[in-house]
Design goal:
Elements (H helix, E strand, L loop, with lengths): L3 E4 L2 E4 L4 E7 L9 E6 L5 E7 L6 E3 L7 E6 L4 E6 L8 E7 L19 E2 L3 E6 L1
Length: 129
Amino acid sequence: QVQLVESGGGLVQAGGNLRLTCVNSGGAFSSGAMAWFRQAPGKDRNFVAGISTSGLTTSFADSVKDRFSISRDNAKNAVYLQMTSLKPEDTAVYYCAEAQMARYVSRDALSSPSSYDYWGQGTQVTVSS
């Protein structure tokens, strides 16, 4: 069973950095495309960043592409989101998502929630001004 667990969220001042980690702790090996989404209070869940199975293809939301980076370690079944120069508008619950390994996810599809089969419970990121 795939069980995604996020960590690394917290409270940080504007301009600060955080690194989020998502690990599949369920024991089942998926290693499909992975992504981060976020949801602010009263708003829809939005795409932040995605990465292909190999790690060679990445995609970012325009609002974060110059500040965030995404990487993965397939040996650890983990994906990371490095966030720099954080802004108050980055405040949200951040969710990790993973596709089944057998599912091909194109670069354009990395940003679509329907591409993913598994979701974590989320980690809160709060950026104070």
